[in-house]
Amino acid sequence: MDLTIHHLRCFLAVAQELHFGNAAALLRLSPSALSEQISSLERRLSRPLFDRSSRTVELTDHGRELLPLARRTVAAMDDVLDWGRGDTATPSIRVGLMVSSPGFRTIMATAAREMPHVRWQIRQLGFLGCSEALANGGVDCVFAVEIGRTPAPEFESLLLWEEACVLVTPEQHRLADRTSVRLDELAEETFVSTEDETASQRWLSSVTVDGTAPRLLPVARNFEEILESCSAGQGVNIAGESARETYSRPGVRFIPIVDSPPAATYLYLRRGRHPSPLERFARMAREFRDGSDS
């Protein structure tokens, strides 16, 4: 059996996108070349990894079993390549971002000032791609927001800060002129959400009353798209209070929710050893948190 890292990178891209055309574009391959790589991998493993139809691509049970193994293998190879480059190459840190905030901008400005030898790359991942990009090695770390203290268990996590939540509404909404709202006033609202309804349900489950599933409008991939849909009157959303400063625009209002759990921002990293520049960056983020708490 002769497997290559390229085989596994192709597998991870298709597993992330569940679409051969999108995965091929991500890898800068033709769809036919990518399909051949996957077929070759399946032949070498003697196991089908994807169920393919004219409309859908899904992981098989074997594919789901391979997924964590492939992620660890590719991450380990990336570590070897980083080590091999040593001091001969400019270190690079790819930072994934779910939503921006004043805290994030402060950390990045400090890092750029104190680590000028690093080539910083910020990747806007939105709500759908954070876990996949980190697991697949597309980024080295991720700033992600969760409602409540419930970090993703598959990653190493560092809680950076917490903030109160606000309701995002159209400016003509029935609650738009209120100075504050309660969760029980939102039971009949439609929430503009991400295209991944499972992720949206998880995000909103801690801000619903009596366990009632919220009514979702799954049309967005990132917070900018959510805001545009809210301003168009399609529904409401919930965000951290710093969104008022970062994303303020005509057409939407940000109203404090008095009884919501906090929105928590985490720095996520893959588990295991990290290159020294990434370790230093994580320490810098921790120092920012500790300084903010004092």
Automatic annotation (TrEMBL):
It comes from the Bacteria. Coiled coil: none annotated. Residues 1-60 form the HTH lysR-type domain. InterPro entries: LysR_HTH_N, LysR_subst-bd, WH-like_DNA-bd_sf, WH_DNA-bd_sf. SUPFAM superfamilies: Periplasmic binding protein-like II (SSF53850), Winged helix' DNA-binding domain (SSF46785). Keywords: DNA-binding, Transcription, Transcription regulation. GO terms for cellular component: protein-DNA complex. One of its GO terms (molecular function) is DNA-binding transcription factor activity. Belongs to the LysR transcriptional regulatory family. This is DNA-binding transcriptional LysR family regulator. It comes from Haloactinospora alba.
